[in-house]
Structures are given as structure tokens and as C-alpha cells.
Amino acid sequence: MVSDGPHLELIRAAAAALNPHVVRDRLFGNVAAALVTSRGSQYLGVCIDTGSGTGFCAEHAAVAAMVTAGEYHVARIVAVWRDDSGRLYVLPPCGRCREFIRQIDDANIGTAVVLGPDRSVELRDLLPHHEWPDPME
């Protein structure tokens, strides 16, 4: 049983979006993400694993749904995966997702990235040195 915490509802929303589906050697929907915007809207997404690097992560899908709805500021985001025995895991975003979230809105550097029911860190802590460098003298 997962302990209660301030992020448990968002984790459960992401878990409810899990929908694994196999096509040949590719797996779709086995990672799901849920995010809440600064306006309080919630968006979901799942990963799509395709050949030649054309797929995308669950966080990308959730952010794309948010942008489609005309919102850009992610307040909190979580991604989850369930193993073959049914255990649920909260996954930190990959580096590509971290940078993707940051670039959608300048305020997203302060996004709370959920790492467990009771734990989150700001995106800036997962993406240090994100500022464009000053020119050399």
C-alpha cells in the first residue's frame, strides 16, 4: 500500500492512464504522466515507443495536451510505470523531458517534479546550469 502524501492524488491519476499495448517489438502506454497547471487544470499523457527515435515520453504527451488547451505553466508533474508484478514506480523525468518542460514557459523552472507521495523537487534542482552562458570577455 502506498503511503498517503500530498502528491498521491496526482500519482493515482497518472497510474489510471497507464494502458500498455504491444505492437511487434514496441510498447506503447506503459509509462503515464499527469500534470497540474498553475490554473489547476490536469492533463495526462502516455509514452509511445517507436523506432528510429520518433517516439516520445509520457511527460511530452501530457505537456502537449496542456499546450493544446492553451496553457503553458506546469505547477506539478509526475510520471509512473508499473512492473510485471503490479508494483507502481514514480519515475523522474529524463534529461530530454526536463529540458522540454523548461522551454515551454520560463516559470516552469520552478515546476514541482513529483518523486513520490511525499517528495518533490523543483525542476531547477534536476536541471542545474540551465541558463544560457555569458559571453567570454
From TrEMBL:
Keyword Zinc tagged: yes
GO molecular function terms noted in the UniProt entry: cytidine deaminase activity; identical protein binding; zinc ion binding
This protein's UniProt keywords: Hydrolase, Metal-binding, Zinc
UniProt GO BP: nucleobase-containing small molecule metabolic process; pyrimidine-containing compound metabolic process
Domain CMP/dCMP-type deaminase: 29-108
InterPro entries in the record: APOBEC/CMP_deaminase_Zn-bd, CMP_dCMP_dom, Cyt/Deoxycyt_deaminase, Cytidine_deaminase-like
An annotated GO cellular component: cytosol
TM region(s), chain numbering: none
Family membership noted in the UniProt record: Belongs to the cytidine and deoxycytidylate deaminase family.
Full protein name: Cytidine deaminase
Lineage: Bacteria, Bacillati, Actinomycetota, Actinomycetes, Micromonosporales
